Give the backbone structure.
Amino acid sequence: MLNRTDELFNLILNNGPSDNTLLLLLNQFKSQGRTGEIIRRCLEAKKRGSNGPGLALLLAEAYLEKGFVGLAEIEICRVISEIEKYSSAYRLAAEILIRRNSPEEATKLLETYLIHNPDDTEASELLKNIRTVKGRQNETEHDNVRVETFSSDLASPTIAEIYYEQGQIDEAINTYEMILLKRSEDQKAKERLEELKTMNLRDKKAVSSDGRSGSYNKKRIKNILEGWIFRIKEQVIEHQRT
C-alpha cells in the first residue's frame, strides 16, 4: 500500500513534471534504491520528449546498477556529448579569470577544457604560459607583487585578442604595447596595435544618441556575456555532479 509521500510523487510523475522536478524526484528514488522505477520513469519521460543530460546520466547509473552495460554506455555517451558542446565555457571562464588576476582558478578551468579539447594548441600554450608565470611568481615574497605583475607577465596576442573580442579595446591596446616592450621586432603585433588604435579612435568619435560611446555599449554586452558564461559553467558542473 502506498504511503502519502508515494501517492504525491506518483501524482506529480504521472502529470508530466518539468525536467528539474523529475530529476529531483528520481534522485529521491535513487536514495531509496528504487532503480527499476527510475529506469521506467526515465523511459516514460524520454517518450514525452525529455532528453536532457541530467536524465541521461541518472538513467545510465540505473542501467549500470542493473547490469545493462551496453545501455548504460549509450546514455553516458549522450551525456559526454552534451558536455562537450559547452566545453568552451571552461576556456571562456578561464580567460575572464586571467583578467581578474586569478591564475589558480584559470589553470583548473583550462585543464578541464583541454580534457575535452586536447587539440586546441592555443589553449595549451595559454595554460603553459600561466604555469610559467606562476612558477616565477611563487618565488616572490609578497602577494601584492604577484597580483600586480601577473597580467603583464602573461601579455600575449591571445590575451590581447580576448580583450578585443569582449569589447575592451583599450585593454587590448595596452596588452600589445606590453608585448612590444618585450619584443620590439614583432611586426604582426605592431600592425595589430595600429589597427586597434585607429579603431579605438573611430569608436570614441561614434557617440550614440544618448550621449554614450560605442565602447560603453560593448562593455555592457561584455558584462552580459560574462554572466552567461558563468551560468553555462555552473550548469555543466551541476550536470556532472547529478
